[in-house]
Amino acid sequence: MNAIVNISRLLKGKLAKTGLSSFKGGVHPPQHKLESTTSPIRSVAAPKHLVLPLRQHVGNVSKLQVAVGDHVLKGQLLAKADGQVSAAVHAPTSGVIASIGNQLIPHPSGLPDISITLEADGSDQWIEHQALDYLSMSKPELLDHLREAGVVGLGGATFPSHIKLREDARHPVRTLIINGAECEPYISCDDMLMRERTDEIVRGIEIMRYLLDAEVCAIGIEDNKPEAIQAMREAVAKSAIAIDVIPVPTIYPGGGAKQLIKVITGKEVPSGRLPTEIGVQCFNVATAYSVHRVVNHGEPVISRIVTVTGNVDRPGNYEAPLGISISELVQLAGGEAEDGDLVMGGPMMGFNLPAADVPVVKATNCIIVPSAEMFPEPEPALPCIRCTRCADACPVNLQPQELYWFSKSQNLEKAREYKIFDCIECGCCTYVCPSNIPLVQYYRYAKSEIIAQDRAKEAADIARERNEFRLMRIEREKQERAQKHAQKAAGAKAEAGVDSAAEAAKKAAIAAAVERAKAQKAEVVAKNTEEASPRVEAEIAKIEARRAHQPEPPVQPEQAQLFAEQQEAPAASGTGQADGLQPLSKEKQPTEEAK
Amino acid sequence: MLTALYVMIGLALLLGIVLGYSALKFKVEGDPLVARIDALLPQTQCGQCGYPGCKPYATAIAKGEADINQCPPGGDAGVHALADLLGVEYKPLNAEHGLPKPKSVAVIDENVCIGCTLCIQACPVDAILGAAKHMHTVIASECTGCELCVAPCPVDCISMEPIAESPANWKWRYPVFEIKPERPVQKKSAA
Q1: N or C: which end of chain A has fewer CB atoms below 10 A?
Q2: Domains in chain B and their CATH numbers?
Q3: Between chains, do A438 and B175 touch, taking CB under 8 Å as contact?
């Protein structure tokens, strides 16, 4: 017991000397970084066939700017950012757009998403581009350039960087932290970038600092990367601005943004808040590098460094054009890519790729080709014994065992109450669990269920509002119509009162006309009957007699209509029709006689 | 004795005034129970429950006229939530009112649409856009999938399409573990 106390005191003393704080929990998994850091970054030529998903970032899907069959140059805009939280996609090489449609993307679901397929023409011809004179530009203009160039956080979160680089009057950023900690095992892309592209990173940091107007600027690098620390220190010494290179203790997940902020500044980002609210902003080193490429070279984000490691002949870091197939990249490194086998990201936070033939995207920082020895089949999960080792390991002060209970029993409200959304899914709890419970899988399940429920609730609220508005609108229209009718009726009455004299004159005129017509009718007599021969007279009498016997009523308009309807309506059979007609003609006779 | 009586009467009067005042001042507008039931309903406005919308159904539940198991879009989870809120026994969904279906959106075949506006009048959430003798289209994000527009269409150009799973709406699955046959365990000899 005494020994433990002494050690903790010693540790505290050491940290006090370096001026660093520490976060609770964390684990020390085997590093496995040496395998991929022995050789320099290898550049990968653009392949024949590239697939560029439009959803490579957090936020809205980019808007297409090209059509199938278009010839595009390297660096040309293929899809522009749609709205503020979005990022553009560019052509990594020159070629022809072969198709636009759903293609498999590197996603744990294994589902396809809308992507552009580019067939390279091999000439790799750049579009015209030039460096920006950013000091003479306004800041919003420069941010727009970053947005159009597709700059996103390359540490893995792929959040559009121009939003994080925007100055916020309410929360001015005092401290700019550049994250070079790279705590996850196997991954070494940031390490190699810091060793080889040191000056470029520093240029990028200068631009970021200019944008944010930060007072303090620090680069946090885990102390297991002495070469990178050395290189950065040398480059920083040459910079015009003061940048601190701070070696931080190697402990997983020391590279998490909130953890690194805690270690460097000693301040904790409150639950559910953003680092800017405590005056800190944090970017990955690779993001700083791409900011430099955009501003000082005019090159959009069309490639990234990917660590390919594990069961391959040439493990190392590859500067791969975005859109290259991961299986192609693995083959370049001398490995075999099998579906469902590869791991994208690290062993702690990464996920198994359901298919190997998916493109490298902006989030692809590492591909691990596993072997049976590296990642043995997990032991079957045993019941939780409530040892709370997970709670000790949790770097965000959660109670993983409680969250596990709630997630397992689908008690989602309770899980939310226990701050499941503060979980960074680092996997420390799963790593230390003596019962081999895949805790993070339960949290991911619970989180996505809660998110889906919230979305459904939001949609329901909108539907309720729209329905209520519709009912209100119908009611209003009804009232308006009633009002209109009432107005019209009132108007007509008033008019009738005014024009009664004119109306009477009109009526009199009509009556007179009717009289005239009647008189005319009476005057008309058949003229050729007076001097007819007796034979003709007899014939007329005969016809008259027949008419009187079987009178044919003159068909009046209403009756004609009725007749036509009767004929149309049943028309079932000949007899039926005749039967239907009979009463009609019988009915007509008396009316005619009555007239 | 009298003092105690006066004190009690005085207190009763004072409290009565306070309560009477607050009953007027803090009067609750509308029926809070209806609003709470309405909040649990999916707002599909489909009318499958037999009422002309979710709010009327909520009102009927609150009055005790309707049962809690008449809402197929709410599903089993919805019945559970209503049972919890109202403190009544859970009962399975009444199949008379239909069975739960995967959430869908209405899609208008725009080549066939004659622009009769009948579906626009039927839509409970104004999610169909169009005008007389002009092509109509469904605003997919506003469509609740109530199917009320399908029946009035004289040319049968509206179909219900289930919302497909995409990387944007994909959910992590509940962890399940394959049970694999164990290696044969060598039996220890009793000796």
Answers
A1: N
A2: 32-97 (1.10.15.40), 101-164 (3.30.70.20)
A3: yes
Q: Tell me how far apart the alpha carbons of residues A366 and A369 are, in angstroms, rounded to a whole number.
A: 10
* pLDDT one-digit tens code per residue, A264-296: 999 999 998 899 999 999 999 999 999 999 999
B28-59 pLDDT, tens digit per residue, is 777 788 999 999 999 999 999 999 999 999 99
Tell if the CB–CB gap between A463 and B165 is shorter than 8 Å: no
Say if residues A288 and A205 touch (Cβ distance below 8 Å).
Answer: yes
Beta bridge partners of A219: A178, A245
The widest CA-to-CA distance across chain B, in whole angstroms, is 96
Cβ contact B172–A105 (<8 Å): no
Which of A321, A344, A369 represents a domain boundary (last residue)? A369
B126 touches chain A (CB under 8 A): yes
* Buried residues in A70-104 as b, exposed as e (16+ CB within 10 A): eebbbbbbbbbbbeeebbbbbbbbbbebeebeebb
Let me know whether A435 and A316 are in one domain: no
Cα(A388)–Cα(A529) distance, rounded to whole angstroms? 127
DSSP lists the bridge partners of residue B140 as none
Q: What is the pTM of this model?
A: 0.78
Residue B71 near residue B97, CB atoms below 8 Å: yes
Question: Which of A449, A484, A519 lies at the terminal end of a domain, its last residue?
Answer: A484
pLDDT on residue A556: 53
Residues A348 and A333 sit within 8 Å (Cβ to Cβ): no
Task: Report the candidate in A481, A458, A474 with the shortest Cα–Cα distance to residue B126.
Answer: A474
**Of A523, A595, A517, A519, nearest in space to A556 by CA:** A595
CATH number at residue A32: 3.40.50.11540
Tokens encoding A385? 């014994």
| A53 is a domain residue | no
Asked if residue A241 lies in contact with residue A249, where contact means CB atoms within 8 angstroms, the answer is no
Which site among B43, B71, B120 would you substitute to test the A interface, given the most A Cβ atoms closer than 10 Å to its Cβ?
B43
- Vertex A61: Cα angle to A47 and A51 (nearest 5): 15
B79 to A453, A528, B50, B71: CA distances (angstroms): 16, 94, 16, 8
Cβ-nearest to B167 among A113, A447, A460: A113
| Cβ pairs bridging A and B (under 8 Å) | 73
In-domain check, residue A100: no
What span, in angstroms and rounded, lies between the C-alpha atoms of B104 and B160? 6
**Pick from A359, A364, A327, A363: nearest CA to A117:** A359
Q: Domain for residue A400, yes or no?
A: yes
Q: Do A109 and B165 touch (CB under 8 A)?
A: yes
**In the numeric block, which tokens belong to residue B45?**
């406005």
Residue A380 is predicted with a pLDDT of: 85
Which domain covers residue A232, as residue numbers?
Answer: 19-43+132-369
